[in-house]
Amino acid sequence: MSQLLRAVGLLVVLLMAHANAAEKLRLVADPWPPFTDALLLNGGLATDIVNTALRRAGYTTLYEQVPWARAMLGLSQGRHDVLINAWFSEERTKIGQFSAEYLLNRVRLIKRRESTIGTLTHEQLHKYMIAVVRGYAYSPAFDSDTLLQKVPVQNFSTAIRMLAAERVDLTLEDEYVARYNLAMEPDEVRDRVEFLPGSLSENSLHILVSLKNPHHEKIVADFDREIAAMKADGTYDELLRLHGLQAPPEL
Fold first, then answer.
1. Binning pLDDT at 50, 70 and 90, where does residue 58 land?
2. CA–CA separation, 39 vs 47, rounded Å?
3. Signal peptide location in the record (predicted)?
4. Going along the chain, which residue ranges are E strands?
């Protein structure tokens, strides 16, 4: 009988291990090139880094690309396990657990080239109309300031075209994202805009793991461990080079 019980116990363990190995983490992100985009190499830089770290930690992954609002809703409902590209905000901690930083985004203001707007303090921003992408978090001070004249838009392309058409005074975006998207805009848009000196903020990029996943703490710990290991063994830098991402120019 004891041998039979041991055999049954071993079978249960093997079945559980097989089930865990077959289970996939459901990754999600919105299109945000050059970081996340299904049309880019390995889904973009951020997707590649996150997938590599999670697979090194022993997870299998399934990636879905959806609009931002749907990605956040799916994470809050537990239909997705991991949001790939999240900037920190207190509000988001209600639906997910953040990892440590794995990339750094520098947000910069953009103006029309002929505009006389120069370096601005936060208070000086109050007198300008600023196009912002709906649902994005830029910095705590900027996001919470009700005196700012924010004009919500669907995406950066809409924002930059509104800026070029003189419908707003400023817009803002991560520098890498802005440069990537500006390269695809018509000359009459691209040539009319430029970055303001300095940066509004530097935002750390994280994964956000749904609190609906009972293993969210372990997933975050495993991810953070592997990111550190990737930086130590050169894998992280190799992925940066693979995606042609160089250090941003000095301000």
1. very high
2. 12
3. 1-21
4. 24-29, 60-65, 82-87, 96-98, 103-112, 129-133, 149-153, 170-174, 193-195, 201-210
